[in-house]
Design a protein that fits this description.
Elements lengths: L6 H12 L1 H9 L4 H10 L4 H7 L5 H13 L3 E6 L5 E6 L1 H30 L1
Antiparallel strand pairs: 1-2
Helix pairs in contact: 3-6
């Protein structure tokens, strides 16, 4: 149970209300969320395929991260009434809007990874 009266909780709430960047970063924070959003954008939509496409993620973590992305309305979940049940995930309009910015961050990261490797090799 989270305490809402702690200074940490008060500070978090203040940042969420006053800094929209903090709000966005809070939605995508988590080891696997950005990768999940990128995979879903690419068309990987089933739980099992997402798990296979991200080696190292546990089923528990995958389920948790997908649930949080759904709660933040970045993805939608559709359960088909079949035996066995089939579940798919898709970006919402809100999640699709975010994709452009995630791609820019990926590109920036790749550029600076190359810069950091060049610097490390020069030393």
């Amino acid at each position: 149970m989270k305490k809402n009266e702690t200074s940490n909780a008060i500070n978090r709430d203040t940042l969420n209300r006053t800094c929209m960047l903090h709000n966005v970063l809070h939605m995508i924070e988590g080891r696997w969320k950005p990768a999940l959003l990128m995979k879903i954008q690419e068309g990987v939509t089933r739980f099992g395929k997402l798990k296979t496409s991200l080696p190292g993620i546990s089923e528990k973590m995958l389920a948790q991260q997908l649930k949080e992305l759904e709660q933040d309305q970045l993805i939608s979940k559709t359960i088909y009434p079949e035996v066995p049940p089939r579940t798919t995930y898709a970006l919402t309009d809100r999640g699709a809007e975010l994709h452009h910015f995630l791609q820019l961050m990926c590109d920036w990261g790749m550029q600076h990874l190359v810069d950091n490797e060049t610097i490390a090799n020069a030393n």
